[in-house]
Amino acid sequence: MGTFYLHAYRLSDMPAASPGSQAPQPAVHVQGQEPLAASMLAAAPLQEQKQMLGERLFPLIQTMHSNLAGKITGMLLEIDNSELLHMLESPESLRSKVDEAVAVLQAHHAKKEAAQKVGAVAAATS
């Protein structure tokens, strides 16, 4: 399993908590969600990690593009988990990736519409 980065710490660089103490760990905080610590993510199977990240990304993306939030979240979940964590910590990074995903969706939609128009013209002329 890969190394997960959170607040510029690698999991292997985080100090081990001594027995009986609760050392605070860096965590990603999303309003209305349980904080996501790197150790929680690392302990989960890959599919569950994506689920945890998606549950935190979706509400943030929904505030930007409510009608495309599900599609964009799915697209972003294809990205490496360490980059997804960075996006959760950095609104600028998240907005940049969301804008990129919207551009891809718009280009795909435009290409699809153009193909349909070509098909309609071909059908009308035959």
Automatic annotation (TrEMBL):
Gene: LOC111175461
Protein's name in the database: Polyadenylate-binding protein 4-like
Record-linked Pfam families: MLLE (PF00658)
InterPro entries noted in UniProt: PABP-dom (IPR036053), PABP_HYD_C (IPR002004)
GO biological-process terms attached to the record: positive regulation of canonical Wnt signaling pathway; protein polyubiquitination
UniProt lineage: Eukaryota, Metazoa, Chordata, Craniata, Vertebrata
One GO CC term, this protein: nucleus
SUPFAM superfamilies: PABC (PABP) domain
Any one Gene Ontology molecular-function term assigned to this protein's record: RNA binding
Residues in PABC domain copies: 33-110
